[in-house]
Structure formats: structure tokens, C-alpha cells
Amino acid sequence: MKILGFYAELWGKHAGTPDGPIRNFVREAPEPDEQKILAYLKAGHEILSVMGKSDDVLGSGEQILGGDSLFTDGEWVWRGDLRFYLHGYHVALPAEFLQSIRATNYARPHLQPERVDEICDAARKII
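Now predict its structure.
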């Protein structure tokens, strides 16, 4: 399991070594297929649902409903607020992730319940 959007402000130290501060990943222009990437993230399998809201760590004053929730595609896990940062700040995502979803034409993979359980167990260790 890989963490997508592994920015220091969004994940605790117990998750491992982050890629760095989120500000380092903010870009002025979106990926040409950003809308498809956003749709892919939205279609992820929800493995942890957290009620409440999280603050925009980049200081806009906005709050993101369910930002602490976790989603997966079976290989990557990401927070619910990643879509907010991608849409609003065009944060850079790993090339490996982008290549993978583009190769499948942005289709969310079907996961067997056993695989979802494995990911949930692994996610408990990083949250």
C-alpha cells in the first residue's frame, strides 16, 4: 500500500517519512486530465469514513467535509481532502500513480472484500 498525497501536514509521523511539505507540490497549472484524476479519486473505495471537517492547511480558511476519511484503489491510499488540494492547488501527484491510472483509462479497479480488509488493517497502522 502506497500513500498518495503523502504531505507532511496531512499524515502523522507514524505513517512514515512524508514526501515533504504540501507547499512544495503546489503548481500553477493543472494536469491536462485533472478532471479525470479527480473523478478517479472520488470513485475510490472508502475504507475509513470520518465525520467532521478538516482545515485547509494552505490557509484559505476553507474547511473540507470528510477530509480525514481514507480511500483506496487497492494499491494507493489517500485522504478525502486530496481532491480539494488537487482541484484548488493542482498539487503534483507521483508519476507512478498517474501512469497507472492513465494506463487503465481512469477505471477504478474492482476489489475483492478480502483485499479491502487487508488495506483497512494496514491503514490502521498509519492513521
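Helices lie at 34-42, 82-89, 95-103, 113-124.
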